[in-house]
Write a structure and sequence with these properties.
binds adenosine-5'-diphosphate; two-stranded antiparallel ribbon; 3 domains; 9 strands; alpha+beta; Arp2/3 complex 21 kDa subunit ARPC3; Helix Hairpins; 64% helix
Length: 491
């Protein structure tokens, strides 16, 4: 659709150029050659150096060639203006390396706009002599030039972006109209000045340059402010996360410590008064809490090491299935009723990697699967070849991660539920450790899918750290299905 439109505008515009040229008023140009070339040169400069204005989160380019091109139309007629606009846009577009179809489209679009503006100017009595009576024809022709040009470009852009055409055209209408009219309003001024002395015409470049300079400075300021605001926002988020983290860590460290002390104190006080069985169950409970405490401290140390990048890699050739088996074996005692399902493609080749780190990543992913899914559900671990390496998927049947949180779960200290009263322990460090550790061994972790039916995380590893594909190709391992599922969850 967009292509057909661009083609049609190009053909109509270029088709108009021929008949227009036959109407070129060479006598008028000959009578005032220097003025013509001066205006044409200024139109070219205007096309080469558009004014860049900050516009919400974007930038808008305003071509100042209109001022001088429109002045050519008023003084030398439509055909002369069409040539000036066409030549200026060809030179500027070619110098800026635009593609040929774009250059031809621009020429076509300018020609149609100029032809429409010229026709209106003549139809309502505009002449080459500027006088107060020319005010209405000038205003009408300028408005037509702007409108046709804006609509022709806007329709093309809306079609190319697949946006509703009318909404696209209206979105920027007043902003565009205001700046366009300001530039066009300078055209008769250019002619009146030229009538007095051609030497004065270049003076008109001063307000244009001033606007240029002002716009550039304000654009830089806007960008600077946006960068500062972003940095400040990041700083705030980090500081909030750190506060949360301190609160969580102190809570998490204190909870197991308090219960260990509770069990030990009871044992000391009651001693033999407790039966053998009860005494043993107290010791086992204290031992479990000790484990929890150790894990937390290990995670904090792991983060400290990762951030300091002090640990060298220990590479060896390993079977990922064996590592997954070990992880499952270790975590089975804490899997309250969960079942594990290991599905590795038979004959999956070995991988050269750091097995302790792979073990750590898989442990974290499987532990999360256990923590965030109800007991008596299944945790599946699959292994298969993918994109020059191996992908391991850890899938659970839990309630999923809220869509708004999905973009943040790999951030340091991020927790979906950071309240101290949450039912499962955690620090918000697990996935951050997974991410950093996988990067250290040339791999990547990602959220493959998360919805009400469950969550699936992926870990991709290259066959060997030194293999050419060792840096994970993002498009291979960050499938769009994440977005699809995110959208499904939000519905
Ligand atoms: P935590 O120590 O809190 O588990 P993680 O970094 O491991 O920290 O995970 C960050 C957050 O992502 C968790 O707070 C949790 O809410 C969410 N999350 C991680 N894995 C899962 C999962 N398998 N299912 C649901 N939510 C998960």
């Amino acid at each position: 659709m967009a292509r057909a439109y661009v083609g049609a505008v190009t053909v109509v515009g270029l088709g108009l150029l021929g008949p227009l040229l036959t109407r070129l008023d060479l006598d008028a140009i000959a009578a005032n050659t220097i003025c013509f070339w001066l205006l044409a040169a200024l139109a070219l400069i205007g096309e080469l150096f558009p004014i860049t204005l900050p516009r919400e989160s974007n930038v808008e380019e305003i071509g100042t060639s209109t001022t001088f091109g429109f002045a050519v139309l008023l003084a030398f007629g439509t055909a002369a203006a069409a040539i000036v606009f066409a030549a200026a846009t060809i030179v500027a577009d070619v110098l800026y390396g635009k593609r040929p179809f774009k250059v031809l489209f621009n020429v076509g679009q300018y020609t149609i706009s100029v032809a429409a503006a010229g026709a209106v100017y003549e139809a309502i009595g505009g002449t080459a002599d500027i006088s107060p009576a020319s005010l209405i024809p000038i205003f009408a022709a300028a408005a037509v030039l702007f409108l046709v040009n804006d609509v022709l470009t806007g329709v093309g852009l809306a079609l190319a972006r697949g946006e509703p055409i009318v909404r696209y055209l209206l979105a920027d209408f007043w902003f565009q109209a205001g700046t366009a009219m300001a530039l066009v309003a300078m055209s008769p001024v250019a002619l009146i000045v030229a009538d007095r002395s051609l030497l004065l015409v270049p003076l008109l470049a001063v307000p244009v340059i001033a606007a240029h300079w002002g716009a550039t400075t304000s654009l830089e300021n806007t960008r600077l402010v946006a960068r500062l605001e972003y940095a400040l926002e990041q700083e705030k988020i980090l500081s909030r996360m750190k506060d949360d983290f301190v609160a969580v860590v102190s809570h998490e460290l204190r909870t197991p410590l308090t219960s260990i002390q509770g069990y030990l104190k009871t044992l000391l006080q009651l001693g033999p008064g407790l039966g053998d069985e009860q005494g043993r169950s107290f010791l086992e409970a204290a031992d479990r809490q000790g484990d929890r405490l150790r894990r937390l401290i290990e995670q904090l140390l792991a983060v400290a090491k990762l951030e300091a990048k002090v640990e060298p890699l220990q590479l060896s050739v390993v079977s990922l299935e064996e590592i997954a088996d070990d992880v499952v074996l270790e975590l089975t005692p804490s899997a309250h009723g969960h079942t594990f399902d290991l599905r590795f493609r038979p004959g999956l080749p070995l991988v050269e990697t750091d097995d302790a780190r792979v073990h750590q990543i898989l442990s974290n992913l499987v532990e999360n699967a256990l923590k965030y899914s109800p007991p008596d559900t299944r945790v599946t671990i699959r292994g298969q070849e993918r994109g020059g390496g191996v992908a391991i998927m850890v899938e659970d049947e839990g309630g999923g991660i809220p869509v708004a949180a999905q973009d943040h779960i790999f951030e340091r200290f991020f927790q979906v539920d950071s309240s101290a009263t949450r039912s499962v322990g955690g620090t918000g460090l697990g996935l951050y450790i997974c991410k950093k550790t996988s990067e250290a061994i040339g791999g990547r972790v990602w959220l493959e899918r998360s919805n009400r039916e469950g969550t699936s995380f992926g870990l991709w590893l290259p066959w060997a750290l030194s293999s050419p594909e060792a840096i994970a190709p993002a498009e291979l391992i960050a499938p769009e299905s994440v977005q699809e599922h995110a959208a499904a969850l939000s519905r």
